[in-house]
Amino acid sequence: MSGKENKIQLSKTASHLPEHGPIDKETGKEVLLSLRNVDITFGKGDNAVRAVKNASFDIYKGETFSLVGESGSGKTTIGRAVIRVNPCANGEILYKGVRITGKIPHSLDREVIRNIQMVFQDPAASLNERATVDYIISEGLYNFHLFENEADRVRKVEKIINEVGLLPEHLTRYPHEFSGGQRQRIGLARAMVMEPELVVADEPISALDVSIRAQVLNLLNKFQQERGVTYLFIAHDLSIVRFISDRIGVIYKGDIVEVAEAEELFNFPIHPYTRSLISAIPIPDPNLEKNKLLFTYDPSVHDYSTDKPVLTDIGHNHFVYGNKKEIEEYKAIREKNVPLKSVTILTPEEMAAFEKKKEEESSEGQEADVTLPPLHDTGNVWYKIGSFFLPPIGIIAGLIFKKFRHTRNAKACFRGAIAGLAVIGALVLLYLLLLLLALL
């Protein structure tokens, strides 16, 4: 976020993590994690894909920061970069003010692994099917020697398995013997037994039944209250995110387009993409849902050809992505302090008129589609070959194709026929030349 680098003193090189992170002078809160102009790229050269572009935001200690956006927007890519799985092409990630991206000392790397844990989206794929639950949960304890003796290890494992709602007798079983919700509890126990300060929760409830989702969310909330855990919660369901988050970041195709406190974001969704996400939240009342008018985001409304956009604070600790002209408009909207309406409920008559208008536009679009190239106008190579050996038929076929606007097929027939006629003409000339030579 622009300007924050100067307000927070950062220690960018260290071999160990400090006890506390830097303090944000604006909010007075401890900054646990900071992303500074992070770019993440996959592939090289012409095939390179820029999955995350210039991402910047802070996560304060003890809060739940949610990152939301549609599939493929870069949410999980950022989460995996935080745990040092995805490397950053540009920018840096700071944990307690210490850079943890790129090449870092081995001692610091171990501290980062110990302090930052991840709960994955698919609990079945993230658990070792050949290992017992006891070993899965204990693996981190073994790797970091976080127990005094075997009895201490068993005590810690049994305590955490009880806290996530499972029984000690489950420790001897294998992951395939559990349901999806139980597997996610095992994944949560594996992360929490390390007593981390930051947990990256990558859509931990999206693969679960609705009734189980609430239980897992209650577990996450319980650990936060008891242990002061900080969450980077990755999700696409804004209806859940609103009630579990302190702050929310919205990402669209790799760009962080808006960051604000949860209620601030829902009351004042300044960026049009955020409004489209909020309008897509289902309404429990089927009658209202049926008459709801969705707000559709159109990226073409932005003109970034000359004036490039940046993530800017428009006041109220609310950051929005836009160019200078847009930021001025966004500030004016926010200063009015009138909550923005993202969901419009039409009356049945209005909805009927709206549907009729859509059908008319659709029929006009279908009529316009008649002028488009036909589906089977592919210019198949067999048209060239056939016309080459039978030029007269090829010319006739080309004329027919042209009449029905099969442009590619017509060209293929004409080219094949012309090539065939050229070869026939060359053979006739050669024959006449040989005949002339024979007569002489």
CATH superfamily of the largest domain: P-loop containing nucleotide triphosphate hydrolases
Q: What is the CATH topology assignment of the largest domain? A: Rossmann fold
Unreliable stretches covering 5 or more consecutive residues: 5-11
Largest sheet, in brief, is: 8 strands, mixed
Mean pLDDT: 88
Radius of gyration: 31 Å
The total count of strands amounts to: 14
Please provide the ordered H/E string of secondary-structure elements.
HEEEHEEHEHHHEHEHEEHHHEEEHEHHHH
Range of strand content: 15-25%
- N-to-C terminal Cα separation, in Å? 93 Å
Side-by-side strand order of the widest sheet: 6-7-8-3-9-10-13-12
CATH class designation of the largest domain: Alpha Beta
